[in-house]
UniProtKB/TrEMBL annotation:
Pfam families cross-referenced by the UniProt entry: TMEM128 (PF20479)
Protein name according to UniProt: Transmembrane protein-like
Top-level taxonomic group: Eukaryota
Transmembrane regions listed in the UniProt entry: 54-76, 82-102, 122-143, 149-168
Protein keywords: Membrane, Transmembrane, Transmembrane helix
InterPro entries: TMEM128
Protein species of origin: Brachionus plicatilis (Marine rotifer)
The UniProt record lists the keyword Transmembrane helix: yes
Amino acid sequence: MHDSELRFRGEISTDILNSLVDKHDSKDQEKIKNLIHKQQQTSFQQSTLSLENICWLIASVLCLYYTNIVSVILWDEGINRSLLYAAILFISVNIFIGIYLIIYLSKIKDIPSSKWNEYNPYLIPVATGAFVSGSIIMLISLWPVYGWLTAPILFTIFMGFIVLIINIPI
């Protein structure tokens, strides 16, 4: 039995794994026992609400509050609106592809994420290109208001968004 076959993400209970130990020879039993022990030690460390993630959330909320970015996007005259709308379009494409992959393919059609490229090989490259394009265009559209602080502000808000998304149970 290979190590890749023994890995698990914590969804399998320890009782089930212990029952598997009895079905293999002593060499495999020792590997399985070591992996169970390692999983039990690291399961607490794999929590998505780590100190780093909490710091990203706090920094993101502070950026949103102190930069007034929502009201700036809505009302400020210095923003290049056509670039802003293009950026919103590109980022929306990215979000819709993500919803399609995560909710429709993974949850409804039961296609694992390792098979997404086989099912539709163009979605991940299109989503990546849309996100990169949207981020660069968003940075350019907000540059007249925030100057060189635009990149750190957008990156901090993006990281807070990612931390928020990974903590939503789907």
